[in-house]
Design brief:
The protein contains 9 helices and 6 strands. With about 280 residues, the chain is an alpha/beta fold. The protein has a single domain, classed as Decaprenyl diphosphate synthase-like (Undecaprenyl pyrophosphate synthetase, 3-Layer(aba) Sandwich), CATH 3.40.1180.10. Strand 3, helix 5 and strand 4 form a beta-alpha-beta unit. The radius of gyration is 20 Å and the shape is globular.
Amino acid sequence: MNSASAALPAITLINLMTDTKLNLSNVNLQKVPAHVAIIMDGNGRWAQARGMERSAGHVEGVNTVRRITEIASEIGVKYLTLYAFSTENWNRPADEVDALMNLIVMAIERETPDLIANNVALEMIGDMERLPEFARERLGRCIEQTSHCTGLRLVLALSYSSRWEITRAARLLAEKVKEGTLLPEQITPERFSSALATANYPDPDLLIRTGGDQRISNFLLWQIAYAEIIVVDTFWPDFSKQQFVDAIARFQNRERRFGLTSQQLTDNPGDNLLS
């Protein structure tokens, strides 16, 4: 096990070592990315490859959410944002949308006691007004029940798309300009970020996409400007704790330059203000 793991609480080490197949030797547990975002793709294709209904893939995908939340919390990730349902997903067949919405609500309710036990706070970003009333109410209760937790913040992007979010932010700022409380020249990148749904979170350090597709799919377009991106071919239902850990190791082996040169980072490490 990496010597850096000595900095972790004993209970965390015990939890990690209970999975005898988990190899942490390539990971520096003192330099884990603070914010990891995941595009959880491949549920439907996983099910179809097995001759099952697409909804079966979504059901199995819930189990993956549980194990990835567990390992993220255990190794010290502070924010985990999962792309659960996009605004474009509303255009899918009605029966699939209904099944997925009910599954999300029931799964979150089922997992809430464990989230509390593991000090994980549940939060959500997205166009909540489009959610069915039952979903808003029941998910709201789960969020409230975990609001006292101080560990990992699990953020579900639900009824979310980046274009919706950016358009909404532009309108909010335009209203302030119209009211005379904001000047156009006062609209800076920082001010714009503060109008986004993710205003309370740092930008992701790492974006993982499962399922093999090489695209962003309208997810956190503003926020991932300098995120490292890792795509794996594995469908989300089969994505394992080890693959998550391996993605962290790959992230740690990359040089994050933020527009600078390698030589600049070597000569003046303090210039890397975004690291």
